[in-house]
Every structure is written in structure tokens, then in C-alpha cells.
Design a protein that fits this description.
mainly alpha; three-stranded antiparallel beta sheet; two-stranded antiparallel sheet; 7 helices; globular
Length: 221
């Protein structure tokens, strides 16, 4: 499962600063709101993707422990994989659907996401299966395959009922969405190194300069 090296955390920070401190006369209030929502959902998808990846890596590390350590108890972080990946699927599908509709209206360019038709279709099927699973379970229609998202047998992707998606396909969609959304915030460098996730921190400083006629500016504070 590839790491996400895109600076999605930095895009979120940039979007927050732009929304709070910059006047954008060419951007309507509505456009500013849905742009913020897109960044929010993309960030959720990315964080859940990273969480799912960390669980896989933790399970691999568990298998490398010594026999003596394992005798004290086995660790099974992979059992939480579905919790993270299902949220990633839901958040990313929201982003993809919104980009699709906004492009149809001419409100944004979603060219990178739109060309990934096979990936978008697979993602949509996975999300739809999640949304209707409770109805099928209640009706006794558990069917074949895992009843929640699991890592595929070849470790290259995920399975859910009779559906599957490779991690590389999921990664391509996140990358495409990141680059399409970043076009709405041209001040953000899409090639910048990834920032660490965490709570946003805002600090401010000010300089007071005194100006008098015929005299050079003098810093007061």
C-alpha cells in the first residue's frame, strides 16, 4: 500500500488561511464554501487511508516479533483495517461525486479525476455496497465474500463481498482529486513536501511603524 506523499495537510492549511485572511472578489461565497468542503473531505479520505496503511504495517511488524514475544499475546491491528478503509472509501467517493457535478456545471476542472473512469466506478460500487449492507444482512442476504472491507489475499488491494479494488487504484484517485482541487487554490504548491497531520495552530505577529512627514519610517514595536 503506497504512502501518500501528496501535501494534502498543507493544502488544508493553505485553504484555511486563504478563507480567513484573503479577499477573493472573483470567488463567490458559495464557491468558497464548496471548495472548503472538498478540501475537508479529501483530508478525511487521506487520513483514513494513512490509518489503514499504518494498520497493515503494524500487522507486518507483529509477524516479525520473536516467538517468545508472541507467546505473551498476539497483536491483531489488522482487525481495525475495515474501520479506517470504509471511512476512506466514503469520504473519497463524496469528493469524486462532487467534482463530477461541479465540472458538469463548469464550476471547476476535474480532468484528472474524470479520466479515471474504471477507478471511479469501482469506488462507487464499494461505497454503494457499504450503504446497503445493513439491508442485506437484515434480510439474510450475506452472500459470498467478506461482509466488511478486508485486505485481499494477494495483499495488493481490498475485498468486500464480490468486489475488489487495488490499493494503487485508490492511490491514483486520491492523487488525482488532490491535484484537481489544488487548482482551486493556485497559491498551493502541489509538489511541496507533505506536512505532518495534527491540530492546526495559528500564530500572529505585528510590526508597528511610525511615519512622519519628512522623516524616515521608525519602527515603534
Amino acid at each position: 500500500m503506497e504512502p501518500l506523499n501528496q501535501n494534502i495537510e498543507g493544502l488544508r492549511t493553505h485553504a484555511l488561511l486563504v478563507g480567513m485572511f484573503l479577499l477573493e472578489p472573483k470567488i463567490s461565497a458559495e464557491a468558497s464554501r464548496w471548495r472548503s468542503w472538498l478540501v475537508h473531505c479529501l483530508l478525511k479520505a487521506a487520513r483514513h487511508y494513512n490509518e489503514a496503511r499504518d494498520l497493515i504495517l503494524a500487522q507486518i511488524a507483529e509477524g516479525e516479533r520473536s516467538t517468545a514475544e508472541m507467546m505473551k499475546g498476539r497483536l491483531l491491528p489488522i482487525l481495525d483495517f475495515a474501520l479506517a478503509m470504509e471511512d476512506c472509501i466514503t469520504s473519497l467517493d463524496k469528493v469524486v461525486v462532487c467534482i463530477n457535478e461541479l465540472e458538469k456545471k463548469g464550476a471547476m476542472s476535474g480532468g484528472r479525476v474524470m479520466v479515471l473512469e474504471a477507478e471511479r466506478t469501482t469506488l462507487k460500487r464499494l461505497r454503494n455496497q457499504q450503504e446497503h449492507m445493513h439491508v442485506q444482512v437484515a434480510a439474510g442476504q450475506t452472500g459470498e465474500g467478506p461482509i466488511y472491507v478486508t485486505v485481499a489475499d494477494d495483499d495488493e488491494g481490498m475485498r468486500f463481498r464480490d468486489l475488489s479494488m487495488t490499493f494503487s487504484a485508490l492511490h491514483r484517485l486520491i492523487d488525482a482529486a488532490y491535484r484537481d482541487i489544488a487548482m482551486l487554490l493556485p497559491g498551493h504548491d502541489t509538489n511541496s513536501p507533505p506536512c505532518q497531520a495534527g491540530r492546526p495552530t495559528l500564530s500572529m505577529s505585528a510590526i508597528v511603524t511610525e511615519h512622519q512627514p519628512g522623516k524616515p519610517p521608525r519602527r515603534v514595536l
